[in-house]
């Protein structure tokens, strides 16, 4: 797993260079390193990679294709899959194409919204969001597209927000849950908003089993989402809720002119942590917790605002804890989870 830390070091160097000079050449190098590592991986790296490998190998994808029939089957990803089949015969084409789209959109979002390319990319890589497309390529695409919708929450433009979400839904339908949450994300952070979130959480907890049963009728892969998780995910739920409490505490140190955007990102993160709580409370299949990834992505914008805030210098230990805490999480995540280690390059590229 050393290669992931090497990537982190390389990206950090170029991100620091970008923060100092704002030169686009640094972003190009960051994009290339991130994309090539994901795109040139072996099919055995990532728990879901074999699934996409078999989809890439299915050359009958567009035979007798019915567009309207496939609207419920994430036609955007199918189009990307078809394009990758046109471009080459090795599965690395699909992996590289998906990674290129995901990381280009993510870098665009960070460039537009973040105070620090370095801090945002550090969080993005160490919290495992970088490696998300090693497993859930379709959802990784939806998350990257959804990042571009954040500006429309801040500007209160519901129509454009919905448009971005619907485009993202062409790659993963579950992003649709973000549409009703818009009306929570535009609210101020206060007790009333907290009550809205609690009520929404209870309602969703009660309705989710029925929604999953209905979804399984549309597509069979959702059938096992209604299975019990047991005690799985308790530690992760605790960690995310602890971070949420820290973000809430840090809010009082954020400058007034940045507070609106901070509140949007904070409410998104709270929504993500709430989903984890729902999953554990309702005893639902742990994969449902992936829904939280749509909203936990806001951490890449929250941390730069906090670390650049007016927080007293006596809290310097928070920066130290942030740094080593993320590195520890990265070590555990990349070494023990999601089938990311050992990293192997695509061996079929070297076969003659």
Q: What would the average pLDDT be, to the nearest integer? A: 84
For the report, how would you describe the main beta sheet?
A: none
Give a count of the beta strands, DSSP E runs of length 2 or more: 0
The portion of residues assigned to helices is 55-70%
Our Rg estimate from Cα atoms comes to: 20 Å
Q: Which regions are unreliable across 5 or more consecutive residues at pLDDT < 50?
A: 222-232
Structural class: mainly alpha
User: What does the overall shape look like?
Assistant: globular
Per DSSP, the total helix count is 16
H-E order: HHHHHHHHHHHHHHHH
Q: How far apart lie the N and C ends?
A: 28 Å
Q: What fraction strand? A: under 5%
In short:
The protein has 16 helices and no strands. The protein has 352 residues and is mainly α.
């Amino acid at each position: 797993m050393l290669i992931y830390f090497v990537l982190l070091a390389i990206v950090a160097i170029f991100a620091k260079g970008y923060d100092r000079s704002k030169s686009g050449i640094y972003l190009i190098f960051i994009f290339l390193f991130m994309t090539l590592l994901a795109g040139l991986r072996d099919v055995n790296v990532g728990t879901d990679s074999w699934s996409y490998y078999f989809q890439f190998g299915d050359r009958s994808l567009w035979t007798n294709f019915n567009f309207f029939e496939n609207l419920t089957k994430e036609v955007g990803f199918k189009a990307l899959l078809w394009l990758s089949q046109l471009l080459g015969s090795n599965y690395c084409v699909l992996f590289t194409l998906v990674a290129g789209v995901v990381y280009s959109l993510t870098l665009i979002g960070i460039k537009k919204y973040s105070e620090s390319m370095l801090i945002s990319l550090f969080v993005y890589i160490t919290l495992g969001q970088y490696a998300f497309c090693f497993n859930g390529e379709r959802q990784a695409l939806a998350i990257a597209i959804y990042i571009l919708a954040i500006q429309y929450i801040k500007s209160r433009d519901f129509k454009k927000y919905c448009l971005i979400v619907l485009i993202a839904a062409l790659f993963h339908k579950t992003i649709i849950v973000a549409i009703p949450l818009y009306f929570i994300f535009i609210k101020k952070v206060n007790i009333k908003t907290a009550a809205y979130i609690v009520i929404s959480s209870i309602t969703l907890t009660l309705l989710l089993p029925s929604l999953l049963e209905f979804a399984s009728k549309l597509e069979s892969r959702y059938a096992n989402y209604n299975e019990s998780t047991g005690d799985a995910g308790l530690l992760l739920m605790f960690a995310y809720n602890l971070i949420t409490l820290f973000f809430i505490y840090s809010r009082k140190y954020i400058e007034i002119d940045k507070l609106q955007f901070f509140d949007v990102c904070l409410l998104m993160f709270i929504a993500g942590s709430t989903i984890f709580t729902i999953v554990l409370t309702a005893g639902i299949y742990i994969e449902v917790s992936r829904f939280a990834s749509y909203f936990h992505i806001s951490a890449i914008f929250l941390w730069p605002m906090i670390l650049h805030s007016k927080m007293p210098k006596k809290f310097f230990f928070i920066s130290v804890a942030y740094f080593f805490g993320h590195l520890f999480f990265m070590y555990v995540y990349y070494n023990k989870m999601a089938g990311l280690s050992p990293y192997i390059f695509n061996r079929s590229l070297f076969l003659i």
